[in-house]
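Cross-check.
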Amino acid sequence: MTQELTVEIVRNPSSGYTLPPPRTERTPGSDMERDVRIILRHSDRDTLTLTVYVSWLPSPEQWLNARLDTTPQTLLEKAGTLRAEWKRLIVDHTADNPAPGTKVGGRPLSEQVDLTPHSAVVKGLVRSLAEDGYDVLDVMLDGEGSSLLRLRQFLLGTLAEKSDLRVSFDSDLPLPWPMLAVDPSSHEDPWDAFLGHRHQVEHTSPGYEYVQQMQLEPRLKAITSLNTDTTLGRVGRAEDVHGLLASRSRLTVRTQGKDLLTALGTAVLPEDLMYFWCHGHLMDEGTANRRLVIKLSDADLIDGAKFMRRRRPLRRLPQRFKPFVLLNACHTGQAAAEPHVGHLGTALINLGAHGVLGPQIEIPQVFASEYAYSFLDMYLEGRRTAGEISRELVRTFAEKYHNPLALTYSLHCGLHSRLDLAS
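Predicted model, tokenized:
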């Protein structure tokens, strides 16, 4: 019997160059006018080319292109320094003059979510980090060529003057895009300089492959999983997150690496959302490659290669793997710390995941659990996209708690991902 398969194309390999945008009627102020796509390509000659596409200009003015003067290595080093500064200034911050009754040698900006008592200190640190974030963008666009000067003026002006854009960085280089900033000297409030505060931001990459995807039957509740290390079960709001998933979805809990890998070896894994609450590590094993690994309650270290190995035999079969993934473990938001570091999120995207969200740095567990509860609570409603929620959380944590750590969470794809129970 002939079987009709439902196929979804999840990648445009031409990067928009050979296929013209669809002809659609646009009204001023419509939702379609808020898209910016920034394509950063690394050539074989170790040079970078930057292409910018904006949706609201008439063709052919929608596209600008220039070769950059800065090198890939320079940008990667700047990105690494920026991550290190966030960890040093925020995560590892110690009080010079601890208040009476507070712990000597403690890390007050990591031990609580609400940093209102430290708001004056935080504001100064945020301004310093905004200047560091702008420095990365400034160095990227530095140069003298006429095409580059025109692109620099247009891109920086667009990112700074307009707000609430949807910005996709289709980049060969894994930079911490939400932590970059426009010129903070032009903004009275330093928070408003960060790209992740101003806009919805995602990182995409040319490695996003074609994957067959079967449709699911409509369902009343989302299908989710909690992949966790049981030693973190009582940290912060971890129990509340577990309860939220249990009450509002059909939840599977996995605490052993072998159970996770077994599930990944199943052709149809019908999960709408996968949540990881565990430890993440960058492994330096003395070889040319470093690995990003996670660990559940057992001793098994799981990396992207193990994920790919489990699903590789299924690639030519009708299958289903299309969850949105919240990787709430240290470093998991990095596409890589450097080009040769294998990344878990990239593997998940290449296997078909709708998007991956995770922190760029070693994140305090108390904050991580609060962020997870806030994100999952909104995502399970099915009304807003992951891009909308991640930007809203940046603003909420800044305004309500004076806490900048939501800026360290990066979307790898998934800007438009939304829970759809009628898929």
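Residues 72-99+109-204 form one domain. The CA atoms of residues 227 and 259 lie 9 Å apart. Passed to J.P. for a second look.
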